[in-house]
Design goal:
Strand content: 15-25%
Strand order of the largest sheet: 1-2-6-5-4-3
Helix content: 40-55%
Oligomer: single chain
Structural class: alpha/beta
Number of strands: 6
Number of helices: 9
Distance between the termini: 22 Å
Radius of gyration: 17 Å
Order of helices and strands: EEHHHHEEHHHEHHE
């Protein structure tokens, strides 16, 4: 599938270990964006990378159950607006795609496609791995007409303190390098805070993020990426 319909409006490094992205969905035809997000979820070629048939069958069952639920209850590709239900999928898919496209980080299926529960998994929403074998745990938040970066950052900090990230490793370990898993277990890990955004000026948004107490706490980790998705 070709690149998803988003525009990269801003990318900058706020520090050696901190990235900021500002992306925008296709405002002229939101239904195309939703259709492309659904197509991305339906792209299951990653399953064939497993050399054991029982693993292929297991992941196919998990993924298709989740996709069937999302298609039936959340996104059918015909909606003309992003809703509360579809918003987090849009934020997750487009944010992950932007990071993979720009930084060439590892492209990992969304959490709900690879974990056991069909939908609404507790824990992180998506993952990646950077060039330094650091596992990145991503959290997506969507709130209409708001900039919920605080919600995303606060949830990440809460999950980090409670060990939700390490808990997730048992479900996602087959998708990452051994070195990144060892690093994460030793506390060397990173996070991605993805969130919906209003038309707020980028400079003002960046300032608010940098002043955020949870951002300051998470800045000590190996990497922190913030992705604002203008919807």
């Amino acid at each position: 599938m070709d690149a998803l319909p988003y525009t990269l409006e801003d990318y900058r490094k706020l520090a050696d270990n901190i990235h900021f992205f500002r992306i925008r969905i296709n405002q002229d035809n939101v239904s195309i964006t939703l259709r492309e997000v659904l197509d991305c979820l339906n792209e299951l070629s990653w399953i064939s990378k497993f050399d054991k048939e029982y693993l292929q069958n297991s992941f196919m069952k998990r993924a298709t159950n989740t996709i069937d639920y999302i298609t039936t209850n959340i996104i059918n590709g015909k909606e003309s607006e992003v809703t509360t239900d579809s918003g987090e999928y849009v934020v997750s898919v487009l944010s992950k795609k932007a990071i993979v496209d720009k930084l060439d980080y590892l492209d990992i299926p969304l959490a709900e496609l690879i974990k056991e529960k069909v939908v609404g998994n507790p824990g992180f929403d998506f993952y990646s791995e950077n060039k330094n074998n650091i596992l990145l745990f991503g959290e997506a938040k969507y709130v209409a007409k708001k900039n919920p970066f605080n919600d995303a950052l606060k949830q990440i900090e809460k999950f980090s303190i409670s060990g939700k990230d390490i808990n997730d490793i048992a479900s996602i370990d087959r998708f990452f390098s051994e070195k990144s898993l060892e690093n994460a277990n030793n506390g060397d890990k990173g996070y991605i805070a993805a969130f919906s955004s209003t038309e707020i000026e980028t400079e003002e948004l960046v300032k608010h993020i940098q002043d955020n107490v949870h951002f300051k706490e998470l800045s000590s980790h190996k990497e922190l990426i913030c992705v604002a998705v203008t919807i």
